[in-house]
Structure of RNA helicase:
Amino acid sequence: MLIPERHQTTGLKRKINTSTSTRKKSKVQHHSLESLPWKSVSRPAETGLGGDDGILDLEEVDDVEVVYEQTDAGRVVTFNVLTAQSQDSEQVKGPETSPTDVDSPDAVAADVEDQDTLLIEPFDSQTLLPDWNSYSLHPRLLRSLHAKQYLSPTPIQSKALPFAMTNRDVVGVAETGSGKTLAYGLPILHYLLSQAQPSRKTKRRIRALILAPTRELALQVSSHLNMCLHAAEAAVKPEAKDTAIPDRTKSKKHKDKGKETENREQAESTLATPKRPPLVSIAAIVGGMSTQKQHRILDRGVDVLVATPGRLWDILEDVGVMDDDLAKQIKSLKFLVLDEADRMIEAGHFAELEHILRLTLRRSREDEIEPEFNDMGDVEEDLVEGKDDMQTFVFSATLSKDLQRNVKKRTRPKGAWNNKNKTSSTLDDLLLRLDFRDPEPEVIDISPEGGIVSSLKESRIECLSAEKDVYLYYFLLRYPGRSLVFLASIDGIRRLMPLAELLGLKAFPLHSQLEQRQRLKNLDRFKSTPNSVLLATDIAARGLDIPAVDHVIHYQIPRTADAYVHRNGRTARAMRRGFSMLMCAPDERRVVRALLGSLGRQDTDIPEMSIELSLLDKLKARVQLARKIDSAQHKIKKDNHERNWVKEAAEAMEIELDSDFMRPVPLRSIAGSEDEQDRPTKHKAKKQNTKTAALKAELKQLLSQPLIAKGISTRYITSGSRPIVDDLIAGEYHEAMLGMKKAEAGSDLIAHKPKTTKIKEELEEEEWAGIGS
Ligand SMILES: Nc1ncnc2c1ncn2[C@@H]1O[C@H](COP(=O)(O)OP(=O)(O)OP(=O)(O)O)[C@@H](O)[C@H]1O
């Protein structure tokens, strides 16, 4: 029997599988749902729970007996967790005993049993992965790398691993999408796997803390590291899986009943084999997650915690009281990682980050701090001081050269923590406050000149701000693919979304005012929809590893040179090709120049895109119509909202509204004899609706018309100034734009021609006009 339950606050869905098995079981009574051994459920697409259900996570618990008791205090419900008696008694005692659950949405446990299988299966890493051989990685990791076909380390991985694997601190700077996560992740997992205690009896302590600036990045990092533990199992055990979960459709066809029973018994015994705690558990704690869930993660114990500084600090200092146990765990870390460190300062996490980092200081450094500044709340006197062997990894695609030099030279001012400006505001300050244990942290900078990845093609379009919608629409139609469009504000996204919808584009928004699960859902939809558009603010600029983003479009220019580099980094990842387009209005040109200047480049280094102007005009008509519809719809919504508000307010105050307010439309008003202004609201609304419907029909008609470039004859395909017959035969014709060849965005660029002085002067004037306007 299944008892489904929905946790509204968390977007978490759970089901309790009550036991029907006749095996001899022992019972452990639980009084709260929270203490049950929940485990995350994978949601394959075929179950219909593939993520489009708006649920952040799905959890289930097996073998639970739900008992209702009538007591003096009323009806009480308790839960008996049934456990096979043969099972290791450790399994039912506490947090560690829960089967394979690491309580992360994507957490997949690497249990001891799998570990055994993995080690028994022959795997010749010398032959299969010669390029990874010199790092002596744990066999489980090697298998995963092979399963993922990561046949050789990326440059940042091959440079960082020798240091990171030998207790050194590493500051790594490498281009976007170059595999930095595994550059620090592999050494951590290697260490933890090598130290793993299969029959541990105590709660695990956090040994690696990875801080990331955004929720999405934190979840992605935890998922990426979990993949590293899990990929090997998937590759090694397909037959084992077949046995464990018998395919009922296949067994129906099975003629030999005896054989089927044997198979099933074998499978059941495999299923009944007790699952043991994971060797290494990785979990993420981010904003938007329910407090119960994050407490459960921490109560159970986790080896690798990936967190956003804001949320971690919230938990550490819940209602002003320090969580001593968690603080102690952070004080005894073996690994501290700052991923996208520079972004963490931009994201306004500086204070929280600073507080967390302070916990990782060694006593010798702590003593340098003024007593009042050292007051971290109710921290016990006997706190474990920051461990001497902690390794620190700082990774980003953009870290200033000055900063790298400072870290290398250790020119940290003595008593940096005692700075009277207690909250410093730059990354330099932050890094100088890190207590690297390594006297000389290894700084590896292999970022490309100007921050631009070699497999990326850049371009720009110069147009007026008001024309950006049309140019964007042109681009999206002309170059189908997955396009990530960056805007400077949430309002901009809210304005573009309905336009995109009306024009038939598959667009999804991503910004900080969306609920967490909505953000993840939109990301998932973008990932799984070919030819889709993600309209995003800069929360999507850093670290997100969305596979196959074909184009990055800077609809509004980035605020900083780093933002330009990181936004571009969402495409052209892992040596794939990518394309970026900067839309630059006259009043933005100056900023763009300065921005590129700080990367040692000129705006003229970026070629312009060629545009088929005859098509652009046709698209203009569509966009204008869509805007009209949008503003009409907006007006209807606004009127309805106001009417409802007045109605609700009147009801609340028990006032009767004037009957005209909701009066049915009188005939004479329909006939048009009444003054427009005096007509009842309902009639106005009806009129607006009709107008909008007419506009929509007009747009529908426009959208259905083929877009034909100038000089194309559709009647005589061999004639016209641009005969299209050859393209049609070769199958190279553009499906949405007749007369255009199918092409990649990067193939339509115009090489820069130096401008004559006269044109230059005109442009300068236009710029100033732009600023004025
Ligand atoms: N050795 C490898 N071989 C092939 N692909 C790899 C390897 N290591 C990582 N990858 C893949 O490269 C992609 C980018 O990795 P990752 O997200 O770690 O990049 P990053 O450098 O952190 O990027 P960003 O700076 O944008 O955060 C991922 O999809 C990852 O799976």
In short: The CA atoms of residues 144 and 150 lie 9 Å apart.
